[in-house]
Backbone:
């Protein structure tokens, strides 16, 4: 989070390492615009530019030292050739199939990704959804809510509901 909040010694914007973002990483909107204001990095946000991507890269690519990719924009050899100063490609996804690893290796560019940091959470969600589907939990919930909606319980009435299994 330090990169988001930018603690430390103040530097002139033109002296800061430039980090290219093709599009905003997922869920970064939760942190607001402050995540892209830092006194440690100068973020070049391609999605905010009125220029087409190729024109944006021709204008700004020479000074880019790092790329933060969210997986939606491929980091190809052609893109990397426009950025002679790039030393790091970081992706917020587990996979690297959108990054030209061979070109990065050839140029000595470090490549990092999220790895399996989300694997357990995704597996937990998948098992939960499977249980929901097999036991009709969501469908039963919708049925009960729809059944109760038109009826107004009289004061003091007590209802006991049970939706058995097949």
Residues:
């Amino acid at each position: 989070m330090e990169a988001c909040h930018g603690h430390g010694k103040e530097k002139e914007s033109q002296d800061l390492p430039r980090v290219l973002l093709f599009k905003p990483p997922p869920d970064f909107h939760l942190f607001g615009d402050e995540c892209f204001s830092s006194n440690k990095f100068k973020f070049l946000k391609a999605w905010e530019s009125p220029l087409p991507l190729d024109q944006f890269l021709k204008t700004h690519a020479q000074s880019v030292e790092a790329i933060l990719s969210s997986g939606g924009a491929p980091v190809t050899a052609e893109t990397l050739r426009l950025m002679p100063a790039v030393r790091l490609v970081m992706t917020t996804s587990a996979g690297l199939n959108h990054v030209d690893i061979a070109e990065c290796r050839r140029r000595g560019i470090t490549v990092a990704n999220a790895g399996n940091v989300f694997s357990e959470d995704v597996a937990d969600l998948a098992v939960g959804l499977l249980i929901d589907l097999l036991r009709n939990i969501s469908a039963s919930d919708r049925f009960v809510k729809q059944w109760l909606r038109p009826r107004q319980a009289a004061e003091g009435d007590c209802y006991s509901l049970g939706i058995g299994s097949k």
Notes: The first strand starts at residue 18 and ends at 21. The mean pLDDT is 79. The beta strands are 18-21, 42-45, 64-69, 88-91, 110-112. The radius of gyration is 25 Å.
